[in-house]
Target: Carboxylic ester hydrolase
Amino acid sequence: MTRPADPVVETPAGAVRGVRDDSGEFYRAIPYAAAPIGARRFAPPAPHPGWPGVRDGTRPPPTAPQPVRDFGRLDMSPYFGPGWVRGEEYLTVDVRTPAADDGRRPVMVFVHGGGFVTGSARAPLHDGSAFARDGIVLVTVNYRLGIPGFLDLEGAPANRGLLDVLAALGWVRATVAAFGGDPGNVTVFGQSAGATLVGALLATPEATGLFRRAIMQSGSGTGAFTTEQARRVTAAAAAALGVAPTAEAFAAIPDERFLEILPALAGLDLRTAGATDPLAGLSPFSLVRTVQPADGLADGPARDVDLLIGTNTEEGHLYVVPRGDLESSTEADVLAVAARVHADPEAEVAALRAALPDATPGELRSAVLGKALFGAGTERMARAHAQISGGRTHVYSFGYRSTALNGRLGAAHTVELPFVFDVADEPWLHGDTGLLGPGPVPPGLAAGVHGAWVAFAGTGEPGWAAYDPHHPVARVLGAEPR
Model:
């Protein structure tokens, strides 16, 4: 039998060859901007010059420079992917589509997480086969991370990683019709840092018209650094490198050196007279804004965008369970974490203790982290969006408890992703140190969660009532929240 020829798509920058598989067609490593090399690492994304002939889109792209992140006994490789795969041209997208025809299908654009320092579109958890199978054109985005992506430097635009995502959305609007997608029906969605970037897009004027819907999975509408906090990180990075805190000086430094100094930036005290650390010391990089995204929605496209937003019920478990802190934490540890993230740490701990009277210190520590990193900022974003959008906000709470690490991981940060991408049965997610633990997941849960995301991308309705800030109720997915 003759093998069908690989599909080829003509884009404005040149032709791209992909592959066919059971879910449709797959095109990889398509540049949406010029390679960020040398001084261009600290410049806005520039248009790609294009290419002659047919570009090979059958192999995975390089990834942004990034460190290795360790989560103890928990295998997080399906989430982080292969780490730093060297190569200059990493500002790329991967596209999965049922067919590169004139189908005008709903488009979903995924922005990965990883604390603004790690992650890529190559992570196995972000495989889009199920979306293509269900009639969606899925675009996954690589963007600048760490110092090139988010360090605030004199002579460079702020939030360069966010500018990359904006450029990728511009590429989608101009190009996705060639891949069978509808540029007028685009949903941008992200998880963790990616969700926080999506929240920033909702408050960014330049994002107007680039997407119709948005999904924020375990992100925050209040996760941005103030300019004073960003200056502290910049000063520490410049001191570690022995150079001036300017884009010109940093442009002469190789990426390897940026990664070497990251331990010197870990754990910086970013508390100021007017702000706590929105990332609780877990990352020295975030967006830099004078107004938090949840408080600036009127400046961007949020009023006219449908929003699906939510968190997991035990987000903080990812940061305490894998290293044994769930069992070893003390009351002093709980108060120390609360002091990083709350202006009145004693009152915050007392309130959580009243809400969770049977909680151990480790569970309280997890609750403090979960609320500070994701819960409070998600609630503020949901309320703010509902107040200006007129019934366009839908909220969820994901409660399925992973049985990983002797049943302790629970409904931790990232556990919803296998269900959203409908890969929860994959063997590489199971076993005691796998993200979902030993044994099968509940029948139908992945189909239900994934189906809600697909429905929302198509119609703006995930299958439950819109959020009312006067009577706030979230749709529970997976299990009753604790």
Q: What stands out?
A: The first helix runs from residue 77 to 80. The CA atoms of residues 334 and 342 lie 12 Å apart. The first strand starts at residue 8 and ends at 11.
